[in-house]
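Today's session is about reading a structure prediction critically. Students often jump straight to the picture, but the first step is always the sequence itself: look for stretches that repeat, for charged clusters, for runs of hydrophobic residues. Only then move on to the predicted structure, which in these notes is written as discrete structure tokens rather than atom positions. Here is the chain we will use throughout the hour.
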Amino acid sequence: MININHFPLWVAKEIALEPRKLPDACEIFRLISRKQNRDHLERWLSWVCDIKTLADQEKLVRESIRAFAEGKGLPLNIRCGKELIGGIGLHSIDWSQGTAEIAYWLAKPSEGQGIATSACKRLIEYAFSGAVGLRELHIQCHPENARSRGVPQRLGFSYQGMVGRYSIYPVRGNYVRQELYAIQNS
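Below is the predicted structure for this chain, in token form.
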């Protein structure tokens, strides 16, 4: 199991990964509700399309906290100083196989600065450490999201192929397969 006392995980001098808590729902909702962020994130993340109210966001945060309590996930906020700038986490943790999926997102103004790559690198170090002990991590990316695809590529993940049919544009009814990347603990 993951020990919450290991947090925050410092990525850089001002960038930290911290466990998500229910009171964070309001701040997350405000961040993704800004037009520039919503327009950008809805393009790649189906869950953003589902968040219409603060109650929707609170429900999603509760579900992620429940997944943590059940040992199936690790939802984290990405902060620059005290400002929330995105999220990252381990999802679909399978302790018997030693695997998990990393997912991440950033507010539009925080993109292009290496934050997602640095945050993933720090989370990978933690996930592969003796404190957690996972053996393999996966990242799925929309094939048209070059910035997101660049993260696993820069971190040495190997391309596994196209997987699944995820509803990326539920409003428009389009379904897009994802690119799958994997890295193993050496």
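Discussion point for the tutorial: The helical segments are 24-33, 35-42, 46-50, 54-69, 115-128, 146-154.
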